[in-house]
Amino acid sequence: MFPAAQRIGGSAMGGATGVGGAKDDARVPWGDVLMSAVAAVSWALIGMAGTAALGLRLLEADAAGSLGPMTAAVVALAAGGSVTPSGDVSAFGLTSAEADTAIEITPLGVSLVGAVLLAYFFLRSLRAAGVVVSPAELLARVGALVALFVAMLGGLAWAGHDVITIDGGALGLDDVTGGGGGVEVPGLGDLGGLLPDRLGDLVDARASVGFTVDTVPTLLGGLCWSAGILVIALLASRRTPLPRGWEAVHRVVRPAVSAVVTVLLVAVAAGLAAAVYAAIGDDHPRRIAGAALLGAPNGVWLGIPIGLLVPWDGRATGELTRFLPDPLDDLLSVGSDQPVTLGRLAELDGRVWLLGVAAALMMLLAGVLTAARTPVGGGGVGAVGRAAATGSGGF
Known about the structure:
Elements: H1 2-13, H2 19-25, H3 30-58, H4 67-78, E1 83-87, H5 108-129, H6 135-159, E2 166-167, H7 168-171, H8 174-177, E3 184-185, E4 189-190, H9 199-202, E5 208-213, H10 215-236, H11 247-280, H12 285-307, H13 328-333, H14 342-348, H15 353-373, H16 383-393
Antiparallel strand pairs: 1-5, 2-5, 3-4
Helix pairs in contact: 1-2, 3-4, 3-5, 3-6, 3-12, 4-6, 5-10, 5-12, 6-10, 10-11, 11-12, 11-15, 12-15, 15-16
């Protein structure tokens, strides 16, 4: 890719009159830039809104309030925004000053759909731009896309300002949670903290809770979120052109980022497969599917650092602890000052050790993919040899 780019632009580097030099230094196709930004942002928000609405519908949340404002609030949260509760929030374990605290829980299932669509159309526009892209054009495409996304997110924040009243009694979840116990998945344990089997305990039947989207924090969060997605997409795509002089990024950075992104997506796919398996034998498969659409990456990516023996410090109180995966909810609720580790979780459920095995396999896969995707000039070193070198030197 880059040798061809150097041949095309070689004549322009000797003088300012070359066609390649004019394209690299001055011309920015603003019409294509704006149309590409509109397409990318539109499809990303459509995908996010569709995923959020479907997840809420499967959870039967529309029985308690208007689906439109709730969808707008979920999309705002997924893009890095925040929501402030209002009304009677005692059912959530929040009292006095805590009741005025903004909620910033991110439904990563919705975020992931938006990120994939945003990255796909952004990278597609760059590939159509030519063999090499100028820094000015790259900056213009990123800036236009981010600006349009933030503007559209402002509209969603305005739509989410309608108060969403949630009546716990209207949800009808008492018959679901009355029997106690969560959803058991072989190898993963009780997924009750990730799935909606305890929502009846979370929202009291006499509680009416409203939510309003915080405009300024949501716009700032959307700005950082969209810019971060574009940077990761540019670093992870090995077939997208870069500005001249960025060959080191393509050769050194892109293989590693691409491998990590691939492994994270595979982990999410495994989590969704586990949710499907859990839904098959459950009395309420629609609610399990809805929770998986909204939050499967939350549970999967939480388990990765724990499986890698990374200790966590945390403490949880109130009814919101019921959203934590089992046995993490029990561990954080005991009031101990000891960190959360894989060993301590395994004391409560021995199957948690499988997180360590899964994390080790993920590290191995990331190393092999990084080695196989790293371009090596000459020497005849194969993918197996590069994998061995990568494994000996660390990931």
